[in-house]
What does this fold into?
Amino acid sequence: MIPETQFDSPERSEPEEIIDDYLLFKVNPLISEILEGFPEFVVVLNRNRQIVAFNNKAYDAFNVKVPEQILGKRIGEALNCIHTNQMAGGCGTSSFCRECGAGKSVKQTRETNAKQEEECKITALRTGKEISYEFSVFTQPIRFKNNSYTLFSVKDISSEKRKEALERIFFHDILNTSSAINGLAQLLIKEKENEEKEHLTNSLVVSSEQLLNEILLQREIRHAEEGNLQISIKGYSANELLQSAFEVYQNHELTIGKNFFVEFLENDVKVQTDKVLVVRSLGNLIKNALEASLNNDEVKLYAYSADDTVYFNVYSTQLIPENVQLQLFKRSFSTKQKKGRGIGLYSVKLIIEQNLQGKVSFVSSDQLGTVFTIEIPLNFTPEST
It folds into this structure.
């Protein structure tokens, strides 16, 4: 019985056919020299998108040591993409694959018999942790011994994407906040009314805190990706964390015209966690919700607890399109259609799941609206990190 698919063909070649193709390419010295000439990993895919040839750089890319661990796999399976087990048909058959640059490029090359290029963001598991790949993917149809194959090569663009993100953040977001601080300071100097001076001073403090938080977030992302993020675990009440996160955006310009409020736990609970990281992560979710909201929309921060876990939630009215839902949490993905965005949700998942033993999820439907949830265990257990 052929497995179901939501994107590309689920059929696979028999193991004997895979070995025959592998040997066909392996014994040809010209093919081997061409493959080894690529600066990064390159593979040859058969008609069912399975790997039948590759260069030596693929061993490191796929974190394997012998050919048997690569042959017959599809790209996502070889990289251990987190979505490869969504469907019985494996890589290329789930709804997530519809938005995958690698999947789209391979499919288009097979169907049009023409070369393609796509940007590809893959979240993969390695040694139990999620890592993000950012590639520019190149696919080229080839004919060899009267059979059709696809040459699949990549260029690692992660550094380029990080540079774009930093340029966007520092030349736009931080520049805007710095300009606001400067403007407030200029008004404060000229203002003579004490009441207005107090208002300007409070606004100045809020803006400077936002600037500091943005800079610290970039440092935390870098440390988290390198696996050396320092965390400080102490006991806090859930309502204290809610209040701190709410205050970050309580007087922010993004709340103008919107109904932004917080609901506290009736029966408060104590949670062992890093307050700074949780509040900053909630702040990212709140900022995204406010940016996506329209005038008179509701954005609500609330929490509940169950089974030794506290669930912090950010609700908003606006729904997320399905194609966007399939790509959320990927590094550099953004709905803002501008280069260098998309760090916020990625950082939330990275910090909460890989450093605070939590979990980040969301739902978006007509019945529920959009709710992003951060789950934090009440008791942090150092031995399991």
Summary: Residues 64 and 70 are 8 Å apart (CA to CA). The longest strand covers residues 129-144.
